[in-house]
Amino acid sequence: MEANEWGLNRRDFERVRSVVGDSERVVMVVKPRLRMSFATAFPSLLLGTMIAGFLGMGAYMFAEKWWVTVLLFSPFWLLALVLLSTPQRYRWRMARTLYVLTNKRAIVFEQRRLWHNRCISWPLFPRLVKRVTKDGHNLGSLIFDYEVHYSFDARKRAPLPVGFLNVPRPDVVQQLVQEQVEAVPPNAAPYAFRPAVLRGPVPRLNAEGAPLAEQPWESRDEGRYLVIFGAVWALFSSIFVGAGLCMLYTESRLADEGVQTIATVTKMRVERSSGGATSYYPTLRFKDTAGRTHTVDYHIDTDNYSRGDKLPIVYLPDEPDTLRVVEDGMSPGTYFALAGSAFVLIGCGMMIIGYKMKKKK
User: Fold this and answer.
1) pLDDT single digits (tens) 264-297
2) Of 183, 218, 253, the domain-final residue
3) 151 and 300 part of one domain
4) Residue 142 is part of which domain span?
5) What is the CA radius of gyration of the chain?
6) Structural domain tally of the chain?
7) Dihedral angle sign, alpha carbons of residues 77, 81, 82, 83
8) Pairing state between β 319-325 and 310-316
9) What average pLDDT score do residues 251-256 get?
10) Could you tell me if 258 and 299 lie in one domain?
11) Residue 163: burial class (beta carbons within 10 Å; 0-12, 13-18, 19+)
12) Angle at 122 between CA 118 and CA 127, to 5 degrees
């Protein structure tokens, strides 16, 4: 392959030329569809949006210390980013995937991860195409083999297909492959072949070439990974719960020991974060039961108050700086405790499922 007759970019042309031999003739070069279907991307986008929403709510509630919230829950921010970038990561990976058919081989160039490039090659033989699948958008897949990928995504526990996947005009591609297979002399073609780079043992297939529902490698390794991931998830989620319980404990003390009085707004300070959020800090002045005057900066989310306003507050006699405006709504501690508890339950559920997968024979 001396000339770039297929109109490939420089990267793809060099990849093909480095693999295709001088005695080989390139018959077809095709790329898969770049876009991920909405049904496939929706679960990841939904979960990523939920996580980002909870984290954003926490950062907004503590706008004056937003960087602490971001740093403390950085693993969850990273997880949300990974989930929300699923369609773009898929597009990036598919843009670097290339299918090549020569008069001697079928070749797949793919990049599953940033650091993982591989080339899978099959010699042409009669049973090369194990299964052909098609959808209603003039797309289809020619499946040459299957392999297992250990993943936290439960749908990937079954073997994944390998071959010319999500290609346009699958009937034409199948016909070209079949013509090249039939052109190979019978004594030169192997009866069966499995590339060494494929992961996992040889899968058991049904009469239609699809993998059987029960596979011997589905449980143990994935179960161990799921238990570890669930434990880490629950551990970091417990930080939410702890922060919420601390806030609720303060609220409980204010309800049981607090003294109600009237505070005066002496001035209003406004801060705007780099993300555009606005926080308001009225300075409250009040007198305790002993007649001592205290001045405290209080955080609110609205600008309903101005200088000279009178506000009913509740404060702790032994800690006058700990106070709450009576008109405030639900405590942030309630949000943190509920969100953290939900995340802890999700982590515990993952650990239970992973444990059952480990125990499965």
Assistant:
1) 888 888 877 665 667 778 888 998 888 889 898 8
2) 218
3) no
4) 10-32+97-218
5) 31
6) 2
7) positive
8) antiparallel
9) 85
10) yes
11) buried
12) 140
